[in-house]
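Worked example 2:
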Amino acid sequence: MDHLKNSFERELKNKLAEKTKGAQSEESVLKKAFKYFDLNDNGTVEPDEFAKAIEKIGIQIPTKQDLNTLFNIYDLDGSGAIDYNEFSTVLFGKGTPATSSSKAAGTASMDPEQLCEALRNKLASRGGRGVIGLARQFKIMDDDNSKNLDKQEFVKAMQDFALGFTAA
């Protein structure tokens, strides 16, 4: 499995390096490809969207089993979807997100101010910088498009962020 992951990441980085143009970074090319195939615009890609994004970049995964294995490697929380900002962060080594169990253990003892700071950092890592970026993150959380977050939507988003918030 490590060989498959290492080989995939090496090839992906090479393809991204080929596709970069001037001021555009490899990371932005990757995010753009993922965003293009994120048909429901929820900030994540499901297995079929992941396969299409990788294929658009120019990588052919030989078997469905290899594709599923790779997808599961990057689906850190086991949700069945990969957040493309986190995928990009892991791929380019700008701080590897912890697994959900270690995240919860590290945040369970935080006070409210620390939890708020962790939420700010998570939103920023997902592109929530400035008013427009923050609005996009809240739009992603707003499942029913009501332009309001009800408690269920907020709890779901906080569980997705795996920061240690509880539903109470």
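The mean pLDDT is 75. The CA atoms of residues 120 and 128 lie 8 Å apart.
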